[in-house]
Amino acid sequence: MQGLSLKNVKISIKDVEKNKLIYDDFGEMLFTHFGVSGPIILSSSAHLIRYKEITKKLNENKIRLYIDFKPALSFEELDKRILRDFEEFKNKDFKNSLEKLLPQKLIPVIVDLSKISQYKKVNEITKEERKNLVELLKNFEVIINGFRPIEEAIVTAGGVSTKEINPKTMESKLVKGLYFAGEIIDVDGYTGGFNLQIAYSTGFVAGNS
Ligand SMILES: Cc1cc2nc3c(=O)[nH]c(=O)nc-3n(C[C@H](O)[C@H](O)[C@H](O)COP(=O)(O)OP(=O)(O)OC[C@H]3O[C@@H](n4cnc5c(N)ncnc54)[C@H](O)[C@@H]3O)c2cc1C
């Protein structure tokens, strides 16, 4: 699925050992040569990296990403939608019946994971098989086993505490004549412009002061 970019998907990141939801979000993501990326994945990464015992959990395959490819539809609604498509394509092979529902790159993967033979005629697919297909599309599981290296990071958390900076001037409260701006300060936001805004605003104030 490398290069496949998805809009309007819902993701949940769970610690499956504790059955705990660590993060969920809705928006854009993409599949890359290494795994997954895109805005909602970057945001989830920021939460995940702070999760207790994360390295151990990742090594033990306890952290899973669940993608809902059709968040606007409930299980029942998606089942009905698939039924409608199946009715239209009833004499086709299963592998040729998902074109209206899914992006091209996703189809072979879903067909493979559905455990329904790709050559099965659509009118022979059982209700049980269809239910599994719906489950796969609403709860697509990806095992998360690591982060990308710091060199590829978009923003770094941590830095000079805001408690030690005068926000009106950006001057250090500890060292007179020393001013801070941008990444060096312990503030960080989600991807989408917040970090540039932090850099510009604090830079402007520090420069003027
Ligand atoms: C790939 C990528 C994508 C990003 N996308 C977004 C985004 O979409 N939205 C968003 O809000 N933020 C984004 N960011 C984050 C944003 O770019 C940074 O938060 C912001 O640029 C920080 O500004 P800064 O001036 O504090 O630091 P920097 O932009 O890192 O500037 C620091 C400068 O200091 C120079 N320098 C370092 N050491 C020395 C030295 N010893 N002497 C002289 N110069 C030195 C460096 O060369 C650099 O030019 C992205 C970052 C990356 C890496």
Question: How do the strands of the widest beta sheet line up side by side?
Answer: 3-2-1-4-5
Number of helices: 6
State the separation between the terminal residues, measured CA to CA.
51 Å
Mean pLDDT: 96
H and E order: EEEHHEHHHEEEH
Based on CA inertia axes, which overall geometry fits?
elongated
- Helix/strand-derived class? alpha+beta
Uncertain segments of ≥5 residues (pLDDT<50)? none
What does the largest sheet look like?
A: 5 strands, antiparallel
Q: What fraction, in percent, of the residue positions are helical?
A: 25-40%
Describe the fold and architecture.
This protein has 209 residues and is an alpha+beta fold. The protein has three domains: 5-70 and 142-146, no CATH class; 75-140, Helicase, Ruva Protein, domain 3 (Orthogonal Bundle); 162-208, no CATH class. It is 31% helix and 19% strand. It has six helices and seven strands; from the N terminus they run E-E-E-H-H-E-H-H-H-E-E-E-H. The protein has helices spanning 39-48, 54-59, 75-88, 107-114, 127-138, 194-208; strands at residues 5-15, 20-31, 36-37, 63-68, 140-143, 165-166, 171-172. It has a five-stranded antiparallel sheet with strand order 3-2-1-4-5. Strands 6-7 form a two-stranded antiparallel ribbon. Strand 1 and strand 2 (20-31) form a beta hairpin. The longest helix is centred in the last third of the chain and has 15 residues, at 194-208. It starts with a strand and ends with a helix. The chain binds flavin-adenine dinucleotide. Flavin-adenine dinucleotide (FAD) binds at residues 154-155, 182-183, 191-196, 199.
